[in-house]
Amino acid sequence: MTQHATNIEQRYQDFIKHVVDTEQVWGLTQEDTWATSTSAEYEDTEVILFWSKKEGAIACAEDEWASYTAEAISLVEFLENWCVGMYGDELLVGADWDKDLSGKEAEPLVLALDVVAQLKAKGKTLQFTQYDSQEEFEEQLIEALEAE
Question: InterPro entries of this UniProt entry (predicted)?
Fold first, then answer.
């Protein structure tokens, strides 16, 4: 793995740990539009960008996103609505991209499973609104990924 790839993977792991600690995810938004980029890995695929810290989002609010503002999303909303919805829309998650728009492009359900694994490792349980429990959410993620 190259140094660049190692750095991107480390930023992804740091993203997972920080969002579990704070139970918050940050995006850049202008009205109903969220900051997106074209995938570097997959043709005709959009990536919606999210950050673990407000400062990371603000650092990327330049050029075409200069008028965008950082907005917090609860971790539960991010997992239930964003990750599940993005999976259905065949979008990817850009986790903690830098201002050069470099970072990990993750499948939303894989990222959600990584978050659940970190929650379990920390002994934390989120109160989901659309699932009976964190365990049910995890089971649904695994079933959807196995069905692919």
Answer: DUF2750
